[in-house]
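> example.struct
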């Protein structure tokens, strides 16, 4: 009887961790965000942006909070706060989800947030150039 109880507990723990690993990296993800206005969705200022500064913002200094808290260290949408968010944060590593998301659309989302999701507006706390830095880092690191 004791062996069955131990087995059952281990099985539950294993299933829990398997669910966490696979849920965060879901690919493709349905998009819940409104499209940016056409004139903004066509903009791409990543050529002038700094991926190094974008990494620093993504990992620790973006305000109101660092991107990695929700999107994760690897950009797979598996950050420490991701489990509390419905829908899950965007998995930047999913080519099927990200293939039609322009740099301008990303700028719009980061600057304004996304209604009915956990994505906050960063437009009041970050300069436009810093947002472009983050986009350059995300696109160059997770969307290769």
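> example.seq
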């Amino acid at each position: 009887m004791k062996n069955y109880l131990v087995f059952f507990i281990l099985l539950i723990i294993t299933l829990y961790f398997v669910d966490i690993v696979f849920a965060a990296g879901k690919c493709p993800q349905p998009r819940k965000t409104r499209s940016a206005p056409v004139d903004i969705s066509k903009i791409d200022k990543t050529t002038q942006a700094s991926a190094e500064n974008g990494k620093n913002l993504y990992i620790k200094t973006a305000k109101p909070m660092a991107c990695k808290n929700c999107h994760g260290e690897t950009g797979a949408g598996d950050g420490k706060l991701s489990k509390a968010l419905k829908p899950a944060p965007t998995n930047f590593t999913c080519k099927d989800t990200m293939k039609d998301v322009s740099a301008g659309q990303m700028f719009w989302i980061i600057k304004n947030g996304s209604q009915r999701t956990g994505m906050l507006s960063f437009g009041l706390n970050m300069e436009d150039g810093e947002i472009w830095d983050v986009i350059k880092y995300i696109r160059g690191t997770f969307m290769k």
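> remarks
The helical segments are 2-24, 38-41, 51-61, 68-71, 95-98, 103-112, 128-141.
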